[in-house]
Amino acid sequence: MSTISIRLSEKEDLLVRNYAKMHCLSVSDLIRTSVIEKIEDEIDLKHFDEALANMKKTYSLDDVKKELGL
C-alpha cells in the first residue's frame, strides 16, 4: 500500500472533512472512492463513445416495440 498526499486550502479541507463525516466515511475512504469512481466513469464514457461511433443504425423505442409486436 502506498500513500498519496494532497494540498487543500483550509476551506477545501473543512468541506472534505465535513462531507466525509456526514457520510460516515474516513477522509481517506472518501478520496479513494471518489478518485476511483472518476476514473471508472471516464473509462465508461470512452467505451460508450467508441460503441456509439461503431453503431451502424439506432432504433427508437417505438421501432423496437413494433418489431417485437408489443
What's the N-to-C terminus distance?
A: 54 Å
Number of helices: 3
Rounded average pLDDT? 95
Q: Radius of gyration over alpha carbons?
A: 21 Å
Q: How many strands appear in the DSSP assignment? A: 0
Strand content: under 5%
User: Fraction of residues in helices?
Assistant: over 70%
Main sheet attributes: strand count, strand direction, barrel closure:
none
Quick structural overview:
With 70 residues, the protein is mainly α. Helices cover 70% and strands 0% of the residues. The chain has helices spanning 10-22, 27-54, 61-68.
Describe the structure.
This protein has helices spanning 10-22, 27-54, 61-68. The relative contact order is 0.06. It contains three helices and no strands. With 70 residues, the protein is mostly helical. Helix content is 70%, strand content 0%.
Task: Walk me through the topology.
Layout: H1 10-22, H2 27-54, H3 61-68
Features:
70 residues, 3 helices, 70% helix
